[in-house]
Amino acid sequence: MRPVSGAGKGPGEAAVAGIAVEVQGVTKSFRVDGRIVKVLDGVDLAAGAGEFVTLIGPSGCGKSTLFNILCGLMEPDEGKVLFDGQEVTHRAGRLAYMPQKDLLLPWRSVLDNVILGPEIAGRPRAEARREAQELMPLFGLAGFEHSYPAVLSGGMRQRAAFLRAVLQRRPAILLDEPFGALDALTRASLQEWLLEVWGRLGQTVLFVTHDVEEAIFLADRVYVFTARPGRIHLALDVRLPRPRSRAIVTGPAFSALKEKLLAALSAGG
Ligand SMILES: Nc1ncnc2c1ncn2[C@@H]1O[C@H](COP(=O)(O)OP(=O)(O)O)[C@@H](O)[C@H]1O
Ligand SMILES: [Mg+2]
Questions:
Q1: In the structure, which protein residues have their CB atom closer than 6 angstroms to any atom of ligand 1?
Q2: Which pLDDT tens digit goes with each residue over 99-158?
Q3: 20 to 30 A Cα–Cα from 54, which one of 68, 132, 191, 194?
Q4: What is the number of the ligand 1 atom nearest to the C-alpha of 176?
Q5: Are 160 and 104 in contact (CB under 8 A)?
């Protein structure tokens, strides 16, 4: 658990206390063309309150399916989901979700895109807009409030989609490969930026990635999935000091973790 450094006025107003998220024995199959395809097989994982946990594994191993279960869009066939120790399997959904595609609405300005959550929840628009405005500088979007998504760079679109998820003010946030489509430089700078924002907001984060360095750089713990049906092949604690800067990726501790992770990925694939 970490202190929420940004609590109080300013951007910290969006701070929410994180919750512990636990997945126990989650199994899920789909019926595809009359066949049953098992996608998740007895998945166990846990994120402590305010922790940053990353999930990595081959395409199709069920990572997005697990996120759909965690945010209540789907139910597991077996197993449980717990928030702060309370079972919520059939009433999950208290989590913010940034899906794999950013899904910004092209006909809405950046500002009106990011306040979608509060707006749907019935909060006054003026209040939601004020709160969003305060966070625009932290999200590198100041001056673009009234622009439309089409004029944004890839990195800006992802930051806008992330701000939209943050403004749902949920105690945990699910990020599904948010940086997957970005070039390496943009991705590296967004990783450092994301850690800074996370440090201020205090939410629990679950983050799916395909990138081994990204998985380690961001995380308190990395879960490595096997190929479908997805099982947890390895849970790797990352005890690198924070705040982290790019320089750690060339250090020996980081390299040792990377080696373990790569070995687990090739063994589980
Ligand atoms: N609603 C669904 N109906 C049928 N099959 C699905 C559905 N959602 C996902 N799948 C299948 O489940 C598997 C895992 O998908 P997904 O969770 O998206 O994997 P990942 O995110 O790890 O790449 C894939 O084979 C996908 O086609
Ligand atoms: Mg996916």
A1: 30, 32, 39, 59-65
A2: 888 789 999 999 999 999 889 889 899 999 999 999 999 999 999 999 999 999 989 999
A3: 132
A4: 21
A5: yes
Q: What is the pLDDT of residue 233?
A: 97
- 33 by DSSP, 3-state: which? coil
Structure tokens at 127: 């209040």
Measure Cα distances from 265 to 46, 66, 242, 259 in Å. 20, 19, 26, 10
Q: For residue 198, how far is its CA from the centre of ligand 1 (angstroms)?
A: 28
Tokens 């208290």 identify what position? 94
What does the pLDDT average to over 14-30?
A: 91
**What letter would DSSP give residue 230?**
B
Atom of ligand 1 nearest to the CA of 58: 22
Closest residue (by CA) to atom 26 of ligand 1? 60
Around ion ligand 2, residues with a beta carbon closer than 5 Å are 63-64
Q: Which DSSP string corresponds to 133-144?
A: HHHTTTTT-TT-
The answer to whether the beta carbons of residues 77 and 65 sit under 8 Å apart is no
Give the span between the Cα atoms of 240 and 247, in whole angstroms: 12
Tokens of 170: 């949920």
In the chain, what are the domains?
10-95+170-268 (3.40.50.300)
pLDDT for 145-194, tens place per residue? 999 999 999 899 999 999 999 998 899 999 999 998 889 999 999 999 99
Residue 150 phi, psi (nearest 5): -60, -25
Say which ligand is closest to the CA of 35.
1
Separation of 168 CA from ligand 2 center, angstroms? 22
Query: Residue of the nearest CA to atom 9 in ligand 1?
Result: 65
- pLDDT above 80 (res 93): no
